[in-house]
Amino acid sequence: MDTGQVSRARTGGTCPGRGEQCVRREEAAVRIQAWWRGSRVRQTLLQAALRAWAIQCWWRAAQAKTLEQRRRLALRLYTCQEWAVVKVQAQVRMWQARRRFLQARQAACTIQSHWRWHAGQARGLLQGCYEVKASRLELDIEILMA
């Protein structure tokens, strides 16, 4: 619809009063109405864009929160697994150290047993006593042959 049709539709076809001035006023009114409708459309589009932006921000925050929760869960699981591995390693090392200690203790007991047996055998073969008198030493040794 052009401005002429709008003016005729409003006034019933003819503009009462002065003709040229009436047409200009109607054209100005049409321009004002168009500007108002355009500004309302722009305002509506701006509000829609801002709402969409707010929804996108919320969605991104929700996604980031979910991702952070997943990351923490994965980290907790990894930490538990690592802790279990460390515990098993410590148990194995303790078992190895205890085994080495028991082997060394058994070896020491064997050596002591043999030494005591040898010392006991040697004590039976050599018996003696000694006395110190003034400036001389008297030594009396008996060697027994079994």
Automatic annotation (TrEMBL):
Protein name (database record): IQ motif containing F6
Top-rank taxon: Eukaryota
Originating species: Pipistrellus kuhlii
Gene3D superfamilies: 1.20.5.190
A GO MF term: calmodulin binding
Pfam families xrefs: IQ
